[in-house]
């Protein structure tokens, strides 16, 4: 009994994350995913960026990432993997933040980021728009991940006085 309870803080958030991973197997491309892939196939990478610049929207970086989505290369199954990749990126981001701001050792390094990732996914208003729709995922989740990583590098440089070139370059990116 006691040994089972010892692993509960790690197993419970994994159990919470498991349905999100299983549901990603049933993920299918939306209409705009096909549109981005078609523009890429018709114009190439540089031509697609010019097309988006002239005809559609001012979200240049997200358009570039969407142009390089797996569907652009004819890999439909890659669309099912993208939510899992974003869950892993969320966990890695929260792990980096917790590692930067909190001192913990052993399995405790993993427990807090797992719980934050599980809680973050549970409080989403709409799972389709926040995790399974690739366009919104890249526009909003990728921006949030970048922002959180930026805050972590600001903390490393200004709070903890870790003035390494890698921290400064990552902060500037």
Number of helices: 8
Per DSSP E runs of 2 or more residues, the count of β-strands stands at 0
- The shape, in one word, is flat
What is the arithmetic mean of pLDDT?
87
Structural class estimated from helices and strands: mainly alpha
Radius of gyration based on Cα positions: 19 Å
Estimate nothing, just give the exact number of structural domains.
Answer: 1
Span from first to last CA? 48 Å
The largest pleated sheet is described as:
none
- Topology order in helix (H) and strand (E) letters: HHHHHHHH
How much strand?
A: under 5%
Low-confidence stretches: none
Helix content: over 70%
Task: Give a brief rundown of this model.
The chain has 173 residues and is mainly α.
